[in-house]
Amino acid sequence: MASEVLLAVVSSRGSVWTKELLKHVPDAQVWPDRVTDLDAVKFMIVMKQPEGLLEKCPNLVAVNGLGHGVDYITKEEGKLKPDVQILRVVDTLMAERMAYWNLWAIINCQRRCEEYLQAQRAHRWSHGEVEDLSSEDNADFRVGILGFGALGGELASVLRKNGYPVSAWARSKRDVEGVAFFAGKEQLPAFLKDLRVLVGLLPLTPETTGLVDKDLLAMLPRGAFFINAGRGQSHKTADLLEALDSDQLAGAVLDVFEEEPLAKDSPLWDHPKVRVFPHVSSWTPIAPGVQQTLENWEAIRQGRAVAPERVVKRHLGY
């Protein structure tokens, strides 16, 4: 009898995930080499699964992504039956890693570390040249978080502990202690106008695709910085380059891109104001990711509700 579980983990660490999952569900079907009956599949465990695979499983009950962002599932949401649950991994360590990577990137911008690096490569002692030795205090360096889910909340907490004023923007308004909160597109200008650095942590939805464009970047104070660790398709690369070249932006730190891997001929690689990272600001730790996924499957088998923070709101896409 074919297993009710199908693994389709097609990513750079797919073999590692699959090996670990098979220790717990050894009879699982595995795409593409160990598939016997897609009609039997009720629970899919995926990361960047082949397009069209979801709809080939007519008895699917839930599909579990192995990360916090699951846009590779939600982009096919319309092909799923209305009662199919989309699940994700929510991990504290993943959020902490993301927060501290962003804190590093913010300090990198605040202290103009890229310019010091360029001076080092030129063998130039740049004391007093890059900064005038009265650099902005944390209290004067307002950070704006664009997208405020679990990752944005953790970053806000870390920033406040380090004395940074924090603003946040999301689809809907909420009350967060110590955070100036803005919601909806009509409040974007007010959110952006006082920022020294904008941090993108958006999920990928039709509404957020291309949101960071020339119009949005023009609303920032001249000389602000941009960091993106959310989804690369949320920013328009051409508009970002234009803002950098015109000095509207003083610099950018990018961990995500419109297309990944970043093309070898992309102008971002060699741009003097850009630091490129290969989508490594954080990742899902395998052990807790496997544990949560197995807990989700067990809850479904027993007819219990999955922990609500792991359930994606299909109508929102996150």
From TrEMBL:
Mind listing the UniProt keywords for this protein, alphabetically? NAD, Oxidoreductase
Q: State a single Pfam family of this protein.
A: 2-Hacid_dh_C
Domain D-isomer specific 2-hydroxyacid dehydrogenase NAD-binding: from-to ranges: 104-281
The highest taxon in the source lineage is Eukaryota
- Mind telling me which InterPro entries this protein's record contains? D-isomer_DH_NAD-bd, NAD(P)-bd_dom_sf
Signal peptide, first to last residue: none
Q: Report if keyword NAD is assigned.
A: yes
Q: Under the GO molecular function aspect, what terms does this record hold?
A: NAD binding; oxidoreductase activity
Oxidoreductase among keywords: yes
The protein's name? D-isomer specific 2-hydroxyacid dehydrogenase NAD-binding domain-containing protein
Q: Which organism is it from?
A: Prototheca wickerhamii
